[in-house]
Specification:
Elements: H1 3-32, H2 34-37, H3 52-71, H4 76-99, H5 113-128
Helix pairs in contact: 1-4, 3-4
């Protein structure tokens, strides 16, 4: 695969992954696999949650895609894997570290309007969402209705 097209594919996959994550969050996590997501919506003292299996699934998928793409001459699978990985890094930084503070020693609370909007949207999601209904299913994008004021 042409390296330029491959490198262009990474941010495209990143953006597409927000749509994939929204869909999976709304229809799978808050649907038939609520049993794996439920512990994420209630207080727990455990460092690990059943919900973490979703991240593990995408990490394994990314690793396999990168490996298969590498073994086949750095084809599209390689770049697809890196696009999914880059989204996973963004998800980890925002959702797990910044919002849920799963690493207590990191106290990063950005003040930009973008971050304030996605923080507000995710807080609303946790306040108003149940097993089969809810709001604000995105992770790295939130509509402007979550702007302050």
């Amino acid at each position: 695969m042409n390296v330029f097209l491959g490198l262009l594919m990474i941010p495209v996959v990143f953006v597409i992954m927000e749509g994939v994550a929204w869909f999976l969050h709304k229809y799978v996590m808050h649907g038939f696999l609520w049993v794996l997501h439920e512990d994420h919506h209630r207080p727990t003292k455990s460092k690990l949650q059943k919900n973490d299996l979703y991240g593990l699934f995408f990490a394994i998928l990314s690793i396999l895609l990168i490996l298969l793409g590498t073994l086949n001459g750095f084809n599209a699978l390689f770049y697809l894997g890196w696009g999914i990985t880059s989204y996973g890094i963004g998800y980890l930084l925002f959702h797990d570290i910044m919002f849920h503070r799963r690493i207590k020693s990191i106290r990063w609370r950005p003040q930009t309007p973008y971050f304030q909007r996605i923080i507000r949207a995710h807080a609303t999601h946790h306040q108003k969402s149940t097993a089969h209904s809810g709001v604000a299913f995105g992770f790295l994008y939130a509509s402007k209705k979550y702007n302050q004021g």
